[in-house]
Fold this protein.
Amino acid sequence: MKIEKVKNYNQKLLAILVTIGVIFLIIALISFIFMAIQESRRYNYNEPETGILSEEKIKELQKENKRKQVISYESPILIDTLNLNYIIPVSHKTLNETEDITGLLSAFPSSDSEISKKKDNRYSRSVYGIFNNIILYDGKKGTNNKLFNGRLNFEKIDTEYFEDEILVLIKASGKDTFKDGVINLKDFSSLYIYSLKEEKMRKIEVSGMDVFHFNFIEKTKDLIIEFGVDKNKDGFYESYNEPIVIKKYDFKNEKLVDIIDTKINSELQKSLEGTEK
């Protein structure tokens, strides 16, 4: 009798463990499928684009006196309290249907921002969105000027505060290097640095490369910039299988210089290839 009870107990315990195991596997499978879908979306280049239309697309629309995108102004952001200097990000909206090139435009605030403090007491502020220009507004004089004359697309505006300077930094794309009909951050980007003090714009770029990441060197205005090398020359930098080179931007002398010595770079490559003697 006792043996039968023990057998029944073991069978029930086994059934419970099997059920738990099956449930765990189902949850794991669902999680895997979800992650796979998310990753697929991340690299799905067929998703609707949020960049500005390429020159080719623009010319096609202009022939019919039509437009597909309209400008939209974001909320003004005070970046210099003492002098009442504001930046007004300029974004755009892509219409469902083309329209005649006439009429007034409406603004739809949609940007987000964050403020952080660096170790050397330098403050920075970042504004996120989908932008194509910036308006510099002088609250004291009531004047405004656009920062760029050309057609650009960018997704982030960084403002860096130094003791004697305020810099506005934008990593922006200006050409449809990926050839998908729009200008966005799939295309090669350049780094733009605007000095409020000097009222001067600096443009940093390397032909055939993409500005992948940048950061200030502690307690200086100099920058370390990572450039993505487009090895297969398809107009798009793929970080998972294309290399990065690192350069330093000398802010005072406005020069871009290599950080890694040519000799060391050669030695490292030969070592990787197994050809080092």
The mean pLDDT is 84.
